[in-house]
């Protein structure tokens, strides 16, 4: 009788500790529900159009993961809904005023929604063939450049997600609809290093809710060799990476040439090679910790009928006083990417962001990582173990005043819009200052919420583009539930 009770008790304990969504040892159901409310009070051009509006976003994902010793399979559906989009916030001369206007312009509806296959892949585990640590993934999946492996240290991996990942390839949770990639990804993961090689085509998404369709005229080859944390130097990881971006869509390229001089990609394609590296280091020093990041990329290839040569660099350093109340963490960041100095020569020198997660690096996205200098200080504090306050103060300027102020998050459609926009600044370079503040509450691993406010103080660049009002505000509140 006692043995029977013990058996029943052990079975109940096993059931109680089974992860949420775990059906059995092979099958798990997971999902996500996200909601967001945004208020925009954007810069205002002349003649004026609506620059102040709000919108709602809902996103739901439901997936099933089948795990076996030799192959894993995953399928995930996504619902994306954009509600209350403004139909009067697109300026004839300045384009969409903020993301809400860009969503409307792309979807041509004030309320746009759709269900599509977000992911569907097989991941073959090649240890049975004598290759332990080797995997081959085929199908539709998320490719997060810069996160080829996780170190297993929350703070270190958090820095990677916030300050390294998706600078060139990504676009998932930082933009509401996101994008996926169709193709293959081969991984060889060992204790000291990770080698990843992927060949993919992006799906539609980003700004359009029609995320099912593949953008078949964009081909991306990405490879990264990562020396894992502590492998060569204590507390430090390094990565070498390469990307080839080939774009032959039915669209017109964007650069600082006159519109009539910009070829169609169907006639003169983009073929951009990017070589880059990063070093990320985190160390305990006394009662605190110090971190440092170096990242750089060099590009070459063909920008339609021009040769392409461009670059971008980032240098960051921080110190956290872990022994003090609120655990204040102060960081300094400098980022610069090249711009084009002569529109009429045969050389294109504007750094190209490919298909990034743009809003991750510009929370108030009136600029992006192209032809930009962004110097800012960041203060992070944790009033309680479940809350975090993040305050950034940016000084923004153009890297080259002869080039454009670029905006956009990369290709969203298989034809039509290029995915980036740009505006002439009349020779000015001072974009202005941006102060953004976010408050995050993490109730558990399953539930978190965030409040964000950003205010831009426009400089000469914004005054020349938006003479009606050269400052702007963005406010949002969102929540995220996962299981």
CA radius of gyration: 23 Å
What value does the average pLDDT take?
A: 94
Can you give the helix content as a percent range?
under 10%
Sheet having the most strands: 18 strands, antiparallel, barrel
CATH class: Mainly Beta
Count of strand segments: 25
Tell me, what's the shape?
globular
CATH fold naming: Porin
Proper CATH architecture:
Beta Barrel
Question: Any low-confidence stretches, pLDDT <50, length ≥5?
Answer: 1-15
End-to-end C-alpha gap: 38 Å
Total domain units: 1
Order of helices and strands: HEEEEEHEEHEEEEEEEEEEHEEEEEEEHE
Instruction: Please tally the helical runs, counting DSSP H or I stretches of 4 or more residues.
Output: 5
Q: What percentage of the residues does DSSP assign to strands (E)?
A: over 45%
Q: Which class best fits the helix and strand makeup? A: mainly beta
In short:
This protein has 483 residues and is mostly beta strands. It is built from five helices and 25 strands. The longest helix is centred in the N-terminal third of the chain and has 16 residues, at 2-17.
Describe the structure.
- The chain has a single domain (25-482), classed as Porin (Beta Barrel).
- It is 9% helix and 50% strand.
- It has helices spanning 2-17, 99-107, 154-163, 358-361, 460-465, and strands at 27-41, 52-67, 71-83, 90-91, 95-96, 112-125, 134-141, 181-189, 193-202, 218-227, 236-247, 250-251, 270-285, 288-303, 306-320, 329-337, 347-348, 372-381, 387-398, 405-408, 415-416, 420-423, 430-442, 447-458, 471-482.
- The strands form four sheets. The chain has an 18-stranded antiparallel β-barrel. Strands 4-5 form a two-stranded antiparallel sheet.
- Strand 6 (112-125) and strand 7 (134-141) form a beta hairpin.
- The chain is mainly beta.
- The protein contains five helices and 25 strands.
- The longest helix is centred in the first third of the chain and has 16 residues, at 2-17.
């Amino acid at each position: 009788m006692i043995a029977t009770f013990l058996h029943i008790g052990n079975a109940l304990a096993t059931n109680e500790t089974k992860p949420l969504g775990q059906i059995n040892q092979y099958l798990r159901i997971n999902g996500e529900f996200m909601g967001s409310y945004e208020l925009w009070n954007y810069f205002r051009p002349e003649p004026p159009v609506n620059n102040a509006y709000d919108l709602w976003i809902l996103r739901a994902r439901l997936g099933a993961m089948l795990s076996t010793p030799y192959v894993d399979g995953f399928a995930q559906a996504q619902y994306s809904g954009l509600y209350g989009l403004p139909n009067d916030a697109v300026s004839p001369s300045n384009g969409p005023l903020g993301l809400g206007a860009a969503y409307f312009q792309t979807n041509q509806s004030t309320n746009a929604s759709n269900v599509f296959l977000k992911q569907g892949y097989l991941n073959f585990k090649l240890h049975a063939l004598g290759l332990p640590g080797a995997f081959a993934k085929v199908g539709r999946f998320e490719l997060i450049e810069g996160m080829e492996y996780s170190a297993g240290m929350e703070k270190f991996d958090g820095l990677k997600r916030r300050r390294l990942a998706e600078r060139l390839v990504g676009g998932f949770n930082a933009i509401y609809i996101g994008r996926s990639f169709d193709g293959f990804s081969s991984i060889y993961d060992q204790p000291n290093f990770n080698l990843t090689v992927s060949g993919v085509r992006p799906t539609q998404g980003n700004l359009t809710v029609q995320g099912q369709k593949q953008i078949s005229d964009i081909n991306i080859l990405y490879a990264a060799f990562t020396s894992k944390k502590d492998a060569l130097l204590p507390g430090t990881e390094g990565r070498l990476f390469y990307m080839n971006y080939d774009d032959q869509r039915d669209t017109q390229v964007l650069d600082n040439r006159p519109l009539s001089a910009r070829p169609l990609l169907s006639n003169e394609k983009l073929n951009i090679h990017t070589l880059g590296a990063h070093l990320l280091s985190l160390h305990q020093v006394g009662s605190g910790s110090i971190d440092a990041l170096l990242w750089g990329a060099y590009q070459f290839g063909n920008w339609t009928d021009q040769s392409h040569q461009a670059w971008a660099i980032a240098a960051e350093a921080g110190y956290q006083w872990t022994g003090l109340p609120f655990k204040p963490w102060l960081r300094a960041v400098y980022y610069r990417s090249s711009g084009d100095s002569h529109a009429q020569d045969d050389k294109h020198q504007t750094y190209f962001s490919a298909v990034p997660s743009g809003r991750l690096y510009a929370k108030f996205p009136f600029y992006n990582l192209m032809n930009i200098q962004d110097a800012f200080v960041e203060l992070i504090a944790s009033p309680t173990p479940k809350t975090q306050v993040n305050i950034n103060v940016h000084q923004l300027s153009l890297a080259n005043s002869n080039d454009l102020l670029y905006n956009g998050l990369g290709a969203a459609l298989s034809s039509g819009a290029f995915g980036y926009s740009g505006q002439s600044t009349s020779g000015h370079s001072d974009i202005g200052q941006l102060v953004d503040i976010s408050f995050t509450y993490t109730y558990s691993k399953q539930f978190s919420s965030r409040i964000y406010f950003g205010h831009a103080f426009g400089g000469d660049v914004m005054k020349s583009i938006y003479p009606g009002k050269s400052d702007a505000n963005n406010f949002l509140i969102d929540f995220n539930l996962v299981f």
